[in-house]
Design brief:
The complex is a heterodimer of chains A (about 300) and B (about 350). Chain A is an alpha/beta fold and about 300 residues long. Chain A has helices at about 5, 40, 90-100, 120-125, 145-150, 160-165, 165-185, 200-215, 230-250, 260-265, 285-290, 290-300; strands at about 50-60, 65-75, 80-85, 105-110, 115, 130, 220-225, 250-255, 270-275, 275-280. Chain B has 16 helices and 4 strands. The chains are: A alpha/beta (about 300), B mainly alpha (about 350).
Chain lengths: ~300, ~350
């Protein structure tokens, strides 16, 4: 089955938000505080359907080639999986997309704009969120604080406003808290809201990681091995959350994943890598049957 | 958290005074501070001195506790603030201008001057972390004191004329007016710090402290946040320095040497790093107020001279105290108090 066909990118309105994730009229007076940030105003310059294009990327570490001309295209609303044996260069490719590595060659084009040389925080502000294999949360902050840090780029008040706690700062903080609560509702994190992240179970930490990413109103979420180290129930919960966000808000996902069951169930499109190259791509069923992929996984 | 108290709005959750006991504490604190002068001149000067160091400690707690950037230059930054006031007043007086009230008027300028120097100190933090950053700030500390010694204050000691500390015939150099002024400024600075701590700016700083890689991935400009943390911490040091210049007879560089920076860092670590108000306050109370009053009781102990005298014992205890808190109580005194509170809340049951 082509699951791409059954999940069209839809931007259904979530209660309280308009289709861009801005607060609606349900919180009076907040809307005028919220100016659309630059990334909403920026129209794609290249008439291109794909939201994220990674082209011909090459990454070297002192002579060792980690990624050798790999790339993929992500369509809006798609869930794409990057699979491959250990050392295939999946995480390196993801790090190029989120801006931690500078590629020796190649381009990353996000929403029609070449972001290959943009620092990570500017990519994040354009709507490119990321979660990590080992959760890289802010360990000494509470869950709700973690989620609210994702809103810092949209802060609409100055340091002086913060120091004097003016009306402007207060109302923005209320909006931010309310916004964080929307994500908490979505991912069912109510019980953990005020708990410090350090010491929470790994499954919850992964969910907080996703919540923090979603609070940024992302267009694309890059997830590095989201299912690694989770129990079956935790995997199911996280998968359900991903599908729900994808279907209700049209957020696209790139998953680096080893769990092939998850890949088959969740993804619309699969890109298989080995030794830094793409060896197969297509719908999950086709890629799973591809002899090169089978050999890469079994033959080592 | 008291049971049965339910907040209906997010603003109520964010307020500083959330429960009746907070209001009671505030009333008690205001009453004690207002009536303290009745206890005599010594307690007034002690409280003013503690308030000055509280401002500097709060600043360092923003830089080190909130944003995680270790700084060993807070003492020298206090010096920048103090000399900014004293030197300007001296220069104005030498030029024949009126300096009436200038020591008070220049307090904000002293903060800004120190903040500018603090921004320079932030530069190494873009590249360095942890011990290396501490070494860079140590170098800055030594360099600044060298500049004080050789260029700014070669005679060791600038004394401002009394008229610089006088506004509307009230002399703010000592006594009640000085005390109330210093306490008022400290209260405002502490409130501003608490507000910044609970705002999105404060959260961004905590994010940079906890994990700067993920801070950049959620869209926080890490370099800018570090620079802001340094500048803000230095601003507080500058204000503290200006108040030091106001409350002391003369400004001399030996008050801003490395020992002061280490004292301030110890206050933050022992009190509670990251808890900008209460952590700093506890640190200052222990390591400034209690500490300076230990000499008399210690020297009355008969055996004290057998173990090297009062100073030696104090140094030893200081070192052990800091080491103990860094290793065993990273949350500081405030963490100890929190555990006591948790225990008392459930007492006499264990859970």
């Amino acid at each position: 089955m082509f699951s791409a066909a059954k999940r069209h990118p839809t931007r259904k309105e979530v209660v309280g938000f308009d289709s861009w994730g801005r607060p609606g009229d349900s919180v009076p007076g907040l809307l005028e505080l919220w100016e659309p940030s630059r990334r909403y105003a920026e129209k794609p310059r290249i008439a291109e359907r794909s939201i994220l294009i990674v082209e011909d990327v090459r990454v070297e570490f002192g002579g060792i080639v980690a990624v050798d001309g790999a790339g993929f295209r992500l369509e809006p609303g798609q869930i794409l999986a990057l699979i491959g044996p250990n050392g295939a260069g999946k995480t390196s490719l993801l790090n190029v997309v989120s801006g931690f590595y500078r590629p020796r060659r190649g381009h990353v084009i996000f929403m029609g704009r070449d972001i290959t040389h943009l620092p990570p925080h500017k990519r994040a502000r354009m709507g490119l969120a990321r979660t990590f294999q080992h959760s890289e949360l802010f360990m000494h902050m509470t869950v709700v604080e973690n989620i609210m840090t994702g809103l810092e780029p949209w802060r609409r008040y100055s340091l002086l406003d913060a120091a004097l706690w003016t009306e402007k700062a207060r109302r923005w903080e209320e909006w931010a808290r309310w916004k964080a609560e929307q994500v908490i509702d979505l991912l069912e994190l109510h019980r953990y809201r005020d708990r410090v992240v350090e010491g929470l179970p790994p499954g919850i930490q992964k969910r907080v990681d996703l919540a923090r990413a979603l609070a940024q109103d992302p267009k694309v979420v890059l997830m590095d091995e989201p299912m690694a180290g989770l129990s079956r129930e935790e995997k199911e919960d996280l998968a359900r959350a991903i599908v729900e966000v994808n279907e209700t808000q049209g957020v696209s996902f790139v998953l680096v994943e080893h769990d092939l069951e998850v890949v088959m169930d969740l993804c619309d499109y699969v890109v298989a890598m080995e030794s830094g190259r793409v060896i197969a791509e297509g719908p999950p069923e086709a890629v799973a049957r591809d002899p090169k992929v089978v050999e890469a996984y079994l033959g080592g | 958290m008291p049971a049965g108290v339910f907040k209906e709005r997010y603003a109520e959750l964010m307020a500083h005074l959330r429960y009746p006991i907070h209001w009671a504490g505030l009333a008690l604190g205001v009453a004690v501070l207002a009536l303290l002068p009745l206890a005599g001149a010594y307690s007034v000067s002690l409280a003013a001195d503690a308030a000055v160091f509280l401002i500097a400690a709060i600043g360092l707690n923003i830089t080190t506790g909130l944003a995680g950037q270790i700084s060993l230059a807070q003492g020298a930054l206090m010096g920048v603030g103090a000399y900014a006031v004293a030197k300007t007043v001296e220069a104005l007086a030498a030029g024949g201008h009126s300096v009436a009230g200038m020591a008070l008027l220049l307090i904000p300028a002293a903060g800004l001057a120190a903040a500018a120097v603090g921004l320079l100190l932030a530069l190494p933090s873009f590249r360095l972390k942890g011990y290396y950053l501490a070494m860079a700030s140590l170098a800055a500390q030594v360099l600044l004191v060298y500049i004080f010694k050789t260029i700014i204050d070669p005679q060791q000691g600038i004394t401002m004329p009394d008229e610089a500390k006088t506004v509307a015939d009230i002399y703010f150099g000592d006594g009640y007016p000085m005390y109330y002024l210093v306490i008022a400024i400290t209260a405002v600075m502490a409130l501003a710090a608490a507000n910044i701590g609970r705002s999105s700016v404060g959260r961004a700083m905590k994010a940079v402290r906890d994990n700067d890689v993920s801070a950049s991935i959620v869209g926080i400009d890490v370099a800018r946040t570090k620079a802001l943390a340094f500048a803000l911490g230095a601003f507080y040091a500058g204000i503290a320095g200006a108040l030091y210049a106001l409350t002391n007879n003369s400004v001399a560089w030996d008050a801003f040497e490395l020992a002061t920076s280490i004292d301030l860092l110890a206050m933050v670590l022992v009190g509670g790093a990251g808890r900008i108000i209460w952590g700093s306050l506890l640190g200052v109370l222990l390591l400034r107020v209690v500490w300076s009053n230990l000499d008399a009781p210690l020297s009355s102990l008969g055996f004290i001279n057998l173990v090297g005298g009062v100073d030696a014992v104090k140094y030893l205890v200081f070192g052990l105290l800091v080491a103990y808190f860094v290793v065993k109580e990273p949350e500081g005194l405030i963490g100890v108090l929190r555990r006591v509170k948790e225990y008392l809340r459930l007492w006499p049951f264990s859970y």
